[in-house]
Amino acid sequence: MVQSTWVALVRHADSIAEPKAVLKWLLVTAKRAAWEAVRKHRDDEKRRTELPDDSPEHPMALPAKDPLPDDEVLREERDRILWMSLQQLPGRCQELLRLVSLADRPDYRHISAAIGMPMGSIGSTRGRCLAKLRTILDEQGTSRGPDAGTEQGRRGRGGPLVRPEGHA
Predict the structure, then answer these.
(1) pTM for the complete prediction?
(2) Is the dihedral of CA 153, 155, 158, 161 positive or negative?
């Protein structure tokens, strides 16, 4: 990654108008390269399937990729409760959280332009909105499940959040 960042600098040296901006350019380029590497690694991990060994202690069948019906029901119920709770937030919070949830790595510049909020306010506002949402979920007794303190509990059980019918 370091080499590719330096190669990119050499290739784009003529496009950097301000010599004092080289350090910032290098940092941004390296950060973007790191994000891209992580994204590619995640994509690769999603495509891989562990194959069973030929030993008698391992089953011969490949693991099923489809979620079990009860996992599907739990995911749909979790998503329904979450979207109903989201509707209880002020409109500005709803709009911000919907936009942030659309991307793996949200672009604050685009969000700022879309909702007219200063870029420097997006992170702190998002934090306050998430705290309000967590309070609503706590009041309903739904935000803390048996695995709420685990990484899986923070990410959610059945994969990405799916919007129920009628929710934009």
Answers:
(1) 0.48
(2) positive
